[in-house]
């Protein structure tokens, strides 16, 4: 596009897409257990699915909890859009990562406090 000043204005570059696995699945390690999910799944969504698929559902053996509050209460995803910070976990050694804003990658290591 040419401006009145004679300068040209290029459109912004397209953002790079996250690499996709060939199988369409990625495997991450959550608290020492492998978890395979469809590519593009957020860590928070993977954790919700994991808890629902465990015996007893979300209140069963794999309770949905990514961290504990200062009073020891289990905390998990609330807003799902990066506002509340309730879904924080340690991801690849980085503490306090908002898992609802983080896409699962092959080999990712997630540690929860739950
Ligand atoms: S669920 Fe609210 S910031 Fe992640």
Please provide a written account of the structure:
The protein contains 1 helix and 7 strands; from the N terminus they run ββαβββββ. β1 (25-30) and β2 form a beta hairpin. The longest helix has 11 residues, at 43-53. The protein is mainly beta and 114 residues long. The protein has one helix spanning 43-53, and strands at 25-30, 33-38, 67-68, 74-75, 88-91, 94-98, 109-111. The chain has a single domain, classed as Ubiquitin-like (UB roll), CATH 3.10.20. The mean pLDDT is 84. The chain has a 5-stranded mixed sheet, with helices on one face. A two-stranded antiparallel ribbon has the order 3-4. FE2/S2 (inorganic) cluster is lined by residues 44, 77-80, 82-87, 98, 100.
Q: What general form does the structure show?
A: elongated
State the CATH class.
Alpha Beta
Counting H and I runs of at least 4 residues, what is the number of helices? 1
Determine the mean pLDDT.
84
CATH topology: Ubiquitin-like (UB roll)
CATH homologous superfamily heading: Beta-grasp domain
Q: How many β strands by DSSP?
A: 7
Overall helicity: under 10%
Instruction: Pick out the low-confidence regions.
Output: none
Task: Give the helix/strand class.
Answer: mainly beta
List the helices and strands and how they pair.
Layout: E1 25-30, E2 33-38, H1 43-53, E3 67-68, E4 74-75, E5 88-91, E6 94-98, E7 109-111
Parallel strand pairs: 1-7
Antiparallel strand pairs: 1-2, 3-4, 5-6, 5-7
Bound molecules: FE2/S2 (inorganic) cluster (FES).
The site of FE2/S2 (inorganic) cluster has 13 residues, from loops.
């Amino acid at each position: 596009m040419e401006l009145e000043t004679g300068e040209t204005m290029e459109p912004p570059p397209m953002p790079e897409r996250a690499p996709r696995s060939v199988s369409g699945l990625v495997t991450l390690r959550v608290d020492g257990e492998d978890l395979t999910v469809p590519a593009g799944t957020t860590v928070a969504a993977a954790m919700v699915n994991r808890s629902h698929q465990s015996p007893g559902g979300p209140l069963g053996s794999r309770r949905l909890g990514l961290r504990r509050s200062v009073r020891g209460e289990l905390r998990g995803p609330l807003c799902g859009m990066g506002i509340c910070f309730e879904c924080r976990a340690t991801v690849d050694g980085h503490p306090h990562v908002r898992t609802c804003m983080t896409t699962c990658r092959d080999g990712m290591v997630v540690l929860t406090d739950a």
